[in-house]
Each structure stands twice: as structure tokens, then as C-alpha cells.
């Protein structure tokens, strides 16, 4: 397989995963209120990663997950993609959590994970915007 074929396959897998997770959120979150919250959290995560870095942004999501099923689902969706995505982190043990990968990896690996998270979020956010209701000002 040529490099461009591999890149296209990874890109398509990223899009498919981002779409599947958005559909799962649309079907799996029972109430419109929870769907609106999930959408709001998805829209905020990218800027949080850019401001704080991937590790701290995911740590915040992980901390909020104990109180909110929407935060939990978002953390699990991001983690599942980053753990499964071989391009984001080639040389790692497959059973490590995303936090373990961040803590145990090199700076280069961390930056690859962060870039992949932002690429995935770009697609996931668009699908979530298309499938989930928009939050109003008092729900955000």
C-alpha cells in the first residue's frame, strides 16, 4: 500500500468513527437536554485542547465524567479513537489508556496524539452539529 493510500484509509476511518460516535450519541442519550449538553461539550473540547493541551483537557473531561454521562461519553469517544488509531501512536502497548499513553510517551508522540484528537474532533463536531439539538444560552 502506498503512503497516500494509507493516509486516505486513516482519514476515512477517522471520519467513519467520528460519524458513528455522533450517531451513537444521538441514539444513546435519552433526553434532548443530555444531547444538547453533549453537543456543547464537543464544541468546547477543541478550544480546550488548544488552550491547555491534550493531557489537561482530557483530565478535565475525565474528572467531569464522574458527575456527567455526557462528559463520560465524550471522554470515552475520544479515548477509543486515539487508542485505536495506530497513526496517532505507533509504538505503544495496545492496552494502555489514553492517559497512560500521554504520561508514558515522548513529546513527539504526545503531539501526534493531540493532532489526531483535533482532526477527529473537527469531524465529530460537524456530525454532532448535524444530528443533535443546539443548546440554548441557559443550558450551556
Give a description of the structure.
- With 140 residues, the chain is mainly alpha-helical.
- Helix content is 76%, strand content 0%.
- It has helices spanning 3-28, 32-52, 54-65, 69-84, 98-104, 107-131.
- The chain is globular.
Q: Whole-number average pLDDT? A: 87
CATH superfamily: AF1862-like domain
Query: What is the percent of helical residues?
Result: over 70%
Q: Which sheet architecture does the biggest sheet show?
A: none
Q: What gyration radius follows from the Cα positions, in whole Å?
A: 15 Å
**CATH class call:** Mainly Alpha
Shape annotation: globular
CATH topology heading: Peroxidase, domain 1
Low-confidence region ranges: none
Question: What characteristics describe this protein?
Answer:
76% helix, Peroxidase, domain 1, 140 residues, 6 helices, mainly alpha
Amino acid at each position: 500500500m502506498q503512503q497516500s493510500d494509507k493516509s486516505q484509509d486513516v482519514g476515512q476511518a477517522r471520519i467513519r468513527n467520528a460519524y458513528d460516535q455522533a450517531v451513537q450519541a444521538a441514539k444513546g442519550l435519552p433526553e434532548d437536554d443530555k444531547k444538547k449538553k453533549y453537543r456543547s461539550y464537543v464544541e468546547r473540547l477543541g478550544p480546550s485542547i488548544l488552550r491547555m493541551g491534550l493531557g489537561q483537557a482530557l483530565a478535565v473531561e475525565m474528572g467531569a465524567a464522574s458527575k456527567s454521562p455526557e462528559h463520560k461519553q465524550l471522554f470515552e469517544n475520544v479515548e477509543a479513537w486515539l487508542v485505536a488509531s495506530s497513526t496517532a501512536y505507533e509504538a505503544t502497548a495496545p492496552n494502555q489508556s489514553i492517559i497512560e499513553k500521554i504520561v508514558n510517551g515522548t513529546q513527539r508522540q504526545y503531539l501526534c496524539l493531540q493532532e489526531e484528537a483535533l482532526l477527529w474532533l473537527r469531524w465529530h463536531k460537524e456530525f454532532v452539529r448535524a444530528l443533535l439539538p443546539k443548546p440554548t444560552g441557559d443550558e450551556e
